[in-house]
Amino acid sequence: MASETTAPPRPGWTEGATRGEAFRRGILEAPSVSFIVIVTMFVGFGALARDVGLGIVQAVFISATVFALPGQVVLADQIAHGAALAAAFLAVTLTAIRLLPLTASLLPHLRDRRTPHWQEYFLSHIIAVTVWIESMRRLPPLPAELRVPYYTGFGATLFTANLAATALGFAIAGQVPPALAAALIFLTPVYFFLSLIATSQNFGDRLALAFGFVMGPALYLIVPGLDLVLTGLVGGTAAYGALRLKEAGKK
Amino acid sequence: MTGDASNPYLFLLIAGFCATAPWRVLGVMLSKSIDVESEVLRWVRAVSTALIAGLVARLVFFPAGALADVPLLVRAGAFAVALIVYFAAKRNLSAGILAGEAALLAGLALT
Predict the structure, then answer these.
(1) Are residue A192 and residue A221 in the same domain, yes or no?
(2) Residue B4, SS3?
(3) Does residue A24 form part of some domain?
């Protein structure tokens, strides 16, 4: 199977770099456009948490234990509506299933012989859309032995910044004008979509983007609650099928 | 805080962490037997891509909170502006995001 991706060049700093240097490099290179966007989105989550009546420690607790914005937003929304524990659990579960393919596809890029398997479970705790997108962009060009320390430095920085952002958002909530609050929330869809375009690797990925975008709202009206899971399974499978057909046609 | 767990942190731990962590754990377990270039993984990629695209469209067309007070035309228009500028600026992520945000605020100021 020929991959359509072209390997980006290996960064110059990796020449003779130790794992400690890669860790520091991960911290230094953490701030980027997507870093600013995700931190801003966590500020928005902190504000939302206050809106629904949570305490500041509870808001930071959610960010630390869930660390996936769609799930966090759904959880806050469920609490706002006074949902029962089982209903809130199911709703968050449905947003979190997407973490399985994200984690499963990222781990092979992260794995090396020096990292014990159990540590991979800790490393996976921060995997969500942003970390997946950034890692898929940053890790492949690095030598395998430098990927875990680089990722750890990058991830620890992002994790810490997002917990601080949650507390900050909570503190400033209610003091920002509605237009600014709307702009904060609007960042999420715009950033997610443009990033998916940026990381799409083939015709199938782009088709999945289009299918998902059309099916998401349609299924939300027909089967609310299961809409995202069905959008992923049906839209993604159709896009993958079309990719296979196209590849078969080329042979 | 409402809910049927008496301790709010227990509620958050169950509905938050316990609903999220197992999928990451399963992902790590399955990744052992998955080859990065494998067909299963290409399918899984397509599924997760479609799911996130669906979430994006839902956030734009059926938002909650402060964004729900923004007219649909402004939301959809600003999203389109972000896409157009992203491609016009040779796939520049920050240009697309800034343009989309500027369009949203401009649209809000005009309505």
Answers:
(1) no
(2) coil
(3) yes
Task: Tell me, yes or no, whether A46 lies in a domain.
Answer: yes
User: ipTM for the complex?
Assistant: 0.83
Look at the pTM and tell me if it is higher than 0.80: no
Closest Cα in chain B, distance from residue A69 (Å): 11
The per-type count for chain A, helices as H runs and strands as E runs, is 13, 0
Residues of B in contact with A92 (CB under 8 A): 15-16, 19-20
Integer Cα distance of A17 and A156 in angstroms: 20
Q: Say yes or no: A127 and A232 in one domain.
A: no
**Amino acid at site A97:** I
Indicate the number of domains in chain A: 2
Is the CB of B16 less than 8 angstroms away from the CB of A78?
A: no
Tens-digit pLDDT profile for residues B29-65: 988 776 656 787 788 778 878 988 988 898 899 887 7
* Domain encompassing residue A78: 20-199
Inform me whether the C-beta atom of residue A122 falls under 8 Å from chain B C-beta atoms.
no
